[in-house]
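Q: Structure tokens for this one, please.
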Amino acid sequence: MKNTLMLVSALSVMALGAGTAFAGGSEGAIGVGAQYQMSGLGGLSGVYDGGMFHVGGFLGFSDEGGDDDTDIDLGGQFYYHLHSTAMSDFGVGGSFGIGFRGDGNDMTDNATLLFIEPGVQTRAFVASNVALSFTAGIIIATSDAEGIAITGQPVFSGGVHYYFF
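A: Here is the predicted structure, written as tokens:
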């Protein structure tokens, strides 16, 4: 009985002293990694986590060595966290992306693609400072891109970030 009481007392002290374990999405954390929009634009990225929201941007570059075949992707995102746990968060917001496409043949066939993507994003922290992100929403294609789609990316095509805090 005495040993059981001591064990319960020790567990109670540890439980009272233990704080909530927060993931890399903690306020003030900066993450680096890669992300892709639902439209397919993406590249290397950085994310700042403000606690109740996260904001970031990406840069992608490709040049196959031919004439006029350089592709550049630029974009940004903002998500407000509606719900957070120690190892995940769910946000509403969106992203935008601009893709500059060279065709390699003729200057008149170059394209500037603009995508606006309102939606929701889930970040799952697989370790305290590594997050996988998954996004679903609406793709609004403007400029040289045309059309609209309502889609999600259930397969890993969101992003991955390593957070420093």
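A few notes: Residues 1-21 have pLDDT under 50 and may be disordered. The longest helix spans residues 2-17.
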